[in-house]
């Protein structure tokens, strides 16, 4: 008795590597699923929205600008040849760069100093202000990328010291370069003692800045503040807290190593400083570095009371930013 042949199953292909299992071929006309795209974390500058970038920039700009006005009210103390002063409240950019995208904090904080402190007080020197902007930009960005986990005190201390070191070392090099440019080549040997005195003075100023600005008004407040804000302030802007396993990287645009960009930025600051000193040395009152200068000097004209007026305006701007963030947050909740 002959057996009838078993018809072959359609749409199935036997798998020689597994016994008793079959894989089903896709039916004709079925669309091929698209490959999964890489998910970008919100603290990545390419993975956050334009509105979030703007909020980070404006918040850092307002906070640091208002704080810079406050430092103008803090008196300095002179101890012999040394002047003990608070250059700026370093904990503000350190905490912001540790919680948010460091790039936009690094852009916003120096802008805040230029707008709220320099322009409002009538002490804006024009294009020459880019010298300080570049120094702070590099320092804040490096500090923010050094913090992988804002809850770790050691990383916050390293970030604060890195910020102040980059800022003050670069400014010290610029000051030394300015002295070299301002020395007459014919009296270079007689001016050797002056150059050494400037180098020693810049070294002492760096040490005092690390202690006062870097530790007292940088690392210590950041150690207390950053862990308490971590995970609470980011959701207000629709961001996730920083992932310690995937922190921001020191990478420039198009994958260029950031150290190359940082070196170019510092060299640009040095070039601006030397150009400014050269223009002053040759007596060019309206040179390239003074383009856009705004120097009515309101403090000298109206007294120290004008500082309180500028501070009130800055606080009002800060409150407006806070209200704006709250409104944006409320609208997002309603949209959900």
Automatic annotation (TrEMBL):
Q: Which keywords annotate this record?
A: Membrane, Transmembrane, Transmembrane helix
Q: Where is this region: Disordered?
A: 1-43
Return the Pfam families for the record: DUF8171
Q: Where is the composition biased (Low complexity)?
A: 7-27
- Report the transmembrane regions from the record: 54-74, 86-107, 127-147, 206-227, 256-275, 306-328
Q: Where is coiled-coil annotated? A: none
Q: Is Cell inner membrane given among the entry's keywords?
A: no
* Record keyword Iron-sulfur present: no
Q: Residue limits of the DUF8171 domain?
A: 55-333
Protein name in the entry: DUF8171 domain-containing protein
Species annotation: Sediminihabitans luteus
């Amino acid at each position: 008795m002959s057996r009838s042949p078993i018809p072959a199953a359609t749409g199935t292909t036997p798998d020689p590597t597994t016994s008793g299992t079959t894989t089903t071929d896709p039916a004709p006309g079925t669309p091929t699923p698209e490959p999964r795209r890489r998910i970008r974390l919100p603290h990545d500058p390419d993975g956050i929205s334009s509105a979030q970038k703007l909020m980070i920039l404006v918040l850092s700009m307002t906070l640091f600008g208002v704080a810079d006005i406050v430092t103008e009210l803090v008196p300095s103390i002179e101890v012999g040849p040394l002047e003990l002063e608070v250059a700026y409240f370093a904990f503000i950019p350190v905490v912001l760069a540790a919680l948010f995208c460091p790039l936009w904090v690094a852009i916003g904080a120096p802008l805040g100093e230029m707008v709220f402190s320099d322009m409002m007080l009538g002490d804006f020197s024009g294009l020459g202000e880019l010298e300080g902007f570049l120094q702070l930009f590099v320092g804040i960005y490096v500090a923010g990328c050094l913090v992988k986990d804002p809850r770790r005190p050691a990383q916050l201390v390293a970030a604060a010291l890195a910020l102040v070191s980059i800022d003050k070392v670069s400014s010290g090099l610029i000051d030394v370069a300015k002295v070299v440019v301002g020395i007459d080549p014919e009296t270079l040997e007689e001016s050797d003692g002056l150059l050494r005195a400037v180098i020693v003075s810049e070294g002492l100023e760096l040490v005092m800045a690390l202690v006062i600005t870097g530790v007292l008004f940088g690392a210590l407040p950041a150690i207390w503040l950053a862990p308490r804000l971590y995970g609470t302030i980011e959701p207000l802007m629709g961001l996730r807290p920083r992932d310690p396993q995937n922190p921001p990287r020191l990478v420039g645009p198009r994958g260029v190593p950031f150290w190359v960009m940082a070196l170019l930025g510092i060299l640009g600051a040095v070039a601006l400083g030397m150009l400014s000193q050269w223009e002053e040395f040759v007596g060019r009152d309206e040179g390239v570095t003074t383009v856009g200068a705004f120097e009515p000097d309101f403090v000298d004209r109206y007294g120290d009371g004008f500082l309180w007026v500028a501070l009130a305006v800055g606080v009002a701007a800060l409150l407006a930013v806070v209200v704006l963030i709250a409104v944006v947050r409320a609208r997002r909740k309603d949209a959900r």
